[in-house]
Structure formats: C-alpha cells, structure tokens
Amino acid sequence: MPILLIIFIAIGLAMDAFAISLTTGLKVSENEKKKIALKAGIYFGGFQALMPLIGWSLGYGFNQYIQELDHWIAFILLSIVGGKMIYESLFGDEDEENIDINSNKRFLILAIATSIDALAVGVSFAFLNVNILTAAFIIGIITFIISLIAVYVGKIVGNLLRNKAEIVGGIILILIGFQILAEHLKLF
Predict the structure, then answer these.
(1) How far apart are CA 173 and CA 20, in angstroms?
(2) What does the pLDDT read at residue 93?
(3) What is the distance between the terminal CA atoms of the chain, rounded to a whole angstrom?
(4) Residue boundaries of the structural domains of the chain
(5) Which parts of the chain span the membrane according to its record (predicted)?
(6) Quick one: which H or E segment has residue 169?
(7) How many angstroms separate the Cα of 183 from the Cα of each of 68, 122, 132, 172?
(8) Closest residue by Cα to residue 57 from 3, 111, 125, 141
C-alpha cells in the first residue's frame, strides 16, 4: 500500500481526535493550552498508533484463510468505520461534561473510544500485507500533530468545524475502502 494512501487513512482516523481536541481547546484556559495540547497529542496519537498494531496482530493470524475476501473485508471495515464517524457526527450525543476536562481519566476514555476505528483498520492492513510498523507510526504521528494543533485552534473555530471534521474523515475512509475494492476487482 502506498505511503500516500496510509497518510490519507491516518488523516481520516485522526478526525475523531481532531474534533475532541478542538472542543477541548474551546474549553481550556490560555494557561493550560500547552499542557492540554501535549496531553491530547500523546493520548490520541499513542492509542491511534497502538490499536492498528493490535488489529493487525488479530487479522494476520486469519490472513491465509481469507485471502480471497481480503479486499471485501477491508472495504466493509473501512466503510463501517467511515459510516459510523459520519453518523456520530450528525446524530451522536456527547456527554463529557461530567468528567474534568484536564483529567487523565477523560483522555484515556476518549483515546480508547476514538481509536477503536484504528483497530478495525489494523485488521484490514493485515489482509492487505501493509508494513504495520510504518503504518502505525504514520497514524500515530499524524494524529499527534492534528490533536496538538486542534487544541490551539479550538477557541477560534471549535464549534464551527467539529461535526464537519468527522464527516470529512468518514468520507475519506469510505473512499479509500472503495479504492481498495476497485483495485482488487481491477476496475481501474
């Protein structure tokens, strides 16, 4: 899989973390922004890098049994993840007001929740024989950078972009799923 495609997948996966970091930036004081931005980057980037490794490990064991279906599995998983992101951005109900915005517990819960998508993508990577260490590194670094920046710009554009970012991320993942399917079916 080309690096550019992995970068697009990473950007798509980072959109949940972007949206949460953006709204977090909206809620923190100027004095706390640097600390919170770094915390968001580390938690979200770290989990986004870890989960594809776990997913890849799970999927790799089954690869030899379902090679004929791997492109369909990748397409379905990416479409489900992308569709879920779009659905949640339009109809989701976020109730994070009861948890301290600066707490490690809040960041841990949100990092796990936003990286479940990356676990599914990791399974897809096993079927596509992607170099998982490179992919996980790229996904983690891109999510780290996007989360860090999002906290800083949160005060400026927080509520304006929040749902739109998740929609764009979902669309990117669905399009990549279609591209993988079309490639294997030799439609291009």
Answers:
(1) 19
(2) 56
(3) 16
(4) 3-184
(5) 6-28, 40-59, 71-87, 107-127, 133-153, 165-182
(6) helix 132-184
(7) 14, 19, 20, 16
(8) 125
H/E run at residue 8: helix 3-27
Q: State the helix-helix crossing angle for 3-27 and 70-91, rounded to 10 degrees.
A: 20
Closest CA to 40 of 138, 91, 94, 115: 115
Identify whether the C-beta of residue 48 lies closer than 8 Å to the C-beta of residue 6. no
**Residue 104: which residues within 8 A CB-CB, separation 6 or more?**
39
CA distance 171 to 35: 32
Are 63 and 127 in contact, with CB atoms under 8 Å apart? yes
pTM assigned to the model: 0.72
